Amino acid sequence: MKKYEGLYHYDDCGLDNIYLKGGVFVSAVDGEECFSITDLEGLHKVIALNLVKQQSPLSNKEFRFLRIELDLTQKELAEKFGCDVQTIANYEKGKSAIPKLEDLALRELYKEGLFRKIINEMRSKKQLSAKPKRAVFEMNRTWHSKDKKAA
Q: Is residue 97 within 8 Å of residue 51, measured between CB atoms?
C-alpha cells in the first residue's frame, strides 16, 4: 500500500464536491487499484461540521448526508419533523425545496448528536463525572475504511 499522490475525488459519501489531499492510500488487488482512506469516521465528522456551519442552505445531497451521519432512516427523521416519509424523500431527491426550518432543525440535530456522543465517550472513559467542573478528552482515531475500487 502506498500513499496516493494528488487530489482524490471522494464521492462515496454522496457529495460531489469532496476532494482529498493526503490520507488516501492505493494498493493493487487482483490487478485493480483499490483506495483506502485513513480515519473515515473523522473525515465524515469534518464534512458534517462544515455543512452545519456553512451559511448557504443545505442541498438535497447535503441534507441526505447529515441524515445518514445521524444514523436516522427517512422514516425516523420524518417522525422527528412531524411530516411523512415522502416529504423527506422528496427533499433528498431534490424534488422539493428544503424549508429553512427543516434545514436548521437538521443542523441542530447533528450538533446535539455530536455533543451527546462526545459526552458519552467521556463518561465511558471516566473522564466526566455526573457534575464535571472541567473535562479534558482526547479522541483516539483508529478508524479504517473499506477499500474502494477505482471507477
A: no
